[in-house]
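Hey team,

Filing this mostly as a record. A colleague (T.K.) asked me to run one chain through the structure pipeline before their review meeting, and I want the input and output archived in the tracker in case anyone asks later how it was produced. No errors, nothing strange. Just documentation.

Input sequence:
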Amino acid sequence: MTYTDGKGRSVVVVTGMGVISALGQGKEENWRKLTAGVSGIRRVERFTTDGLRTTIAGTVDFIPLDQASSPALAERMATLVIEEAIAEAGIGSRGDFPGPLCLALPPIEMDWGLRQRLAAASGTGPEIRYSDLLHAASQGGFESEYRRFLFGSIADTLADQFGTKGSPIGTSTACASGATAIQLGVEAIRRGEAESVLVAGTDGSVNPETLIRFSLLSALSARNELPEAAARPFSKDRDGFVMAEGAAALVLESLSHARARGARILGVVEGCGEMADRFHRTRSSPDGKPIIATLRNALADAGAELNSIGYINAHGTGTPENDKMEWTAVSAVFGDRAKSVPISSNKSMIGHTLTAAGAIEAVFTLLSMRHGRLPPTINYELPDPAIPVDCVPNKARDASVSRAVSNSFGFGGQNVSLVLAAEPT
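Output structure:
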């Protein structure tokens, strides 16, 4: 039997999920700590932070690596969450996933440590050029690094490992990347190009260079003295986001395919909306119009009425401007009802996982509906009168929600909203 939505498209469901964040590995540990209001933000110990304005992050330091680097951590986390998602979905066989891979990942760059090793190998001294690095990398002992940085091989490696079909799609649309990857998977199923899609988002980018870059943009919180209290979405005293690492994976299927094989349905991706901003490389448009359009596009794509939305998992970074713009958009779309729709931010506890955020927060949104419990926004001590939001302050809340929105708004005007449902209609 074929199941379609009101627009004649295949209904897209989720049958498997996996997640890693600074709170721990796996859905069970993450959900327990998330709903308990536990923070995963801590002082950075992976490298020296002397002289840095920000010395805290949501690091994932509990995963062993043969050779530490941001790309290696991103790849390892992606492997673990995909294994968890596939195991839950019970789909395919080992190394033989029956659909394509859509992967959200950050730009692949050389960590400083690797650059130093390559510089030493090149023998060219401190004035090393990029061509010298590539030449050194192509020589003995650096073949794997050469392949990774020249071809961005993380997606290829994962596709080979899990036996996905066709060429993997790697996307990097700033902080919206994880949601973009989900949207690409949904569209592939709706177009009839696949009956199942493996989607993942991963980011292991807490390193000195990235911390410095975001600090130069004045985007990071500098509340170093009490790391767990640093991320303060929607609070009047918010001073920036906290960088973090993590990954999530979702197995998407057409409802027809999932029911034919007797799969358990974990939720539905009913709608995807996007709108490019192009106002500024980092700032959002002051009038909020692109974000407003993103939300409206998602709701229209889902065919969802405003009154049916019972929860919004906010982008909620904790930067002064971004939180205000998100509230501007929500209030414009939901009108008088905006103040009564629960809107919490996972980033208050796990930090901002950048490229992976859209995927991780989609998983948490689906878990919220399945468990009937909304994660809190912790550190909400000083309300901002300009943002009269019900942010589920400090403690989780029991609530029966059948349809929710998950927002992902990124640098450079990359905006995506997802409409997720607990059950197929």
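Quick notes for T.K.: The chain has a mean pLDDT of 91. Residues 402 and 422 are 5 Å apart (CA to CA).
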